[in-house]
Design goal:
With about 190 residues, this protein is an alpha/beta fold. It contains six helices and five strands. Helix 1 links the parallel strand 1 and strand 2.
């Protein structure tokens, strides 16, 4: 069983990556193989609605850094996607990845487990959390929830670690994901 965590922040080793990695560590503690991918520095654009994937399922006409990440998403049993809040929303990087993964792979994620994580300095986490959650729901990915919404507060690098409730919430989310994954795969 493998879990893939994706940090949709353009900043490496920032608060979003810290929270996604913390969630993965909780899963690893339960015997789940984990991998963390940072989208920082990658060139990923949104869907162009060209229709290519309708004629070539699992493929996309746009050739950038999205396809290798999407392949890892298809191979994973669990997917966690984290995003910082940019102007009240998820980053363009993560939205582009999710658009392309969803459109070019309809039905390929059904039955997997997963969910979102959102991080910001002050606000926008709830909207961003739900914005990402819609992708999980429409792709029929099972979300076990946690002890609260998977959101964190932090601005400067590493500040999110001071958000004890947020860190505990994503840890518990990781534990719930691992438990659910074990039940589904049993």
């Amino acid at each position: 069983m493998k879990a893939l965590g994706i940090s949709g922040s353009p900043r490496k080793q920032g608060n979003t990556e810290i929270m996604v990695d913390h969630c993965l560590k909780a899963m690893a503690e339960e015997g789940i193989e984990t991998e963390l991918i940072s989208l920082a520095g990658l060139n990923i654009t949104g869907c162009k609605n060209c229709g290519y994937c309708s004629e070539h399922p699992g493929e996309c006409a746009t050739k950038d850094d999205a396809q290798p990440v999407i392949e890892k998403m298809k191979e994973a049993d669990a997917i966690i996607v984290g995003s910082p809040v940019f102007y009240g929303s998820a980053t363009a990087l993560v939205k582009g990845l999710m658009e392309r993964a969803g459109y070019s792979n309809r039905g390929k994620f059904a039955g997997k487990v997963g969910g979102p994580i959102a991080v910001a300095r002050r606000g926008g986490q709830n909207f961003t959390f739900m914005e990402l959650m819609y992708w999980f729901h429409i792709n029929r990915i099972i979300n076990p929830g946690s002890t609260y919404w998977n959101i964190g507060f932090g601005h400067g690098k590493g500040e999110v670690t001071k958000d004890e409730e947020g860190m505990n919430t994503v840890w518990n989310f990781g534990k719930n994901l691992a438990e659910l994954l074990k039940k589904i795969k049993a």
